[in-house]
Amino acid sequence: MRPVRPLAAALAERTVVLDGGLSNQLAAQGCDLSDALWSARLLVDGPEQITAAHTAYVRAGARVVITSSYQATFEGFARRGAGPAEAARLLARSVESARAAGEAVGEEVWVAASVGPYGAMLADGSEYRGRYGLTVRELTRFHRPRIEALAAAGPDVLALETVPDTDEAEALLAAARATGLPVWLSYTVAGGSTRAGQPIADAFSLARGEGQVIAVGVNCCEPGDTEQAVEVAAGVTGKPVVAYPNSGERWDAASGRFRGRATFDASLVRAWQAAGARLVGGCCQVGPGAIAEVAATVASV
């Protein structure tokens, strides 16, 4: 169900719960994600699985659903033989699948169309390094077609997420401007810097004068790095902050699995809220159970 009120209006009054990691829920459902398209492969041959994963998070209390388009690009689909028209249809399907989850549960949900970084298309981990050797203009040219295709499908907001550096943030904002849709800008960070090594205060400042940006913050980072980033984002921009870190487990590329101890704890949400977070949830390896705890924490504050 589509909410009556814009997300920006809701954020002015309360904290809204995001969903968690889509890939880990799809894996829990038995889906094979060993493909360069990652979860976006299921837009081609398993869209019902994507809707089921979204639905699990809505049932857990998420009221913002992030689409499966993070790694979906015209270039990636072309490598699988899909032409531009088919690729645009698959991008639209990601929005439709997310919207269907709200309908399945009978809950109003905002759909955030995921726009992942250029490095996600490369499928080599470079989204955690940035600095691809491309200019801002070249990155804008890459991002614009899929942003336009996603916007045409009618999401409530564009999630410009897992952004590793300020060049890509600038390009994403430029590519989204003509759509007129609200956006949030979310960096992946390590300590007090972007993954490319820029101070997070400088990175967040790009959003300060952008009226289209309804929230700015971090995702796909360590839970322990989140509170500081939220404080800086709120202080620099004066905007609501979005925060959805990973579980704290580390990806082992050699074995193709996450390792280590999960440090994501729903009780951390209270500190994020106190620092200015108004959109809270989880990213990689944060499942519906954890999101249910986040929703309960938000409801109790």
Automatic annotation (TrEMBL):
InterPro entries: BHMT-like, HCY_dom, HCY_dom_sf, Hcy_S-methyltransferase. GO terms for molecular function: S-adenosylmethionine-homocysteine S-methyltransferase activity; zinc ion binding. Its cofactor is Zn(2+). It is an enzyme of class 2 (transferase). Keywords: Metal-binding, Methyltransferase, Transferase, Zinc. The keyword Heme does not apply. This is Homocysteine S-methyltransferase. Signal peptide: none annotated. GO terms for biological process: methionine biosynthetic process; methylation; S-methylmethionine cycle. PANTHER family: HOMOCYSTEINE S-METHYLTRANSFERASE-LIKE ISOFORM 1, ZGC:172121. Binds 1 zinc ion per subunit. Residues 4-298 form the Hcy-binding domain. SUPFAM superfamilies: Homocysteine S-methyltransferase (SSF82282). Zn(2+) binds at residues 220, 283-284. NCBIfam families: PRK09485.1 (NF007020). Coiled coil: none annotated. The lineage of its organism: Bacteria, Bacillati, Actinomycetota, Actinomycetes, Kitasatosporales. Its EC number is 2.1.1.10. Gene3D superfamilies: Homocysteine-binding-like domain. The keyword Transferase applies.
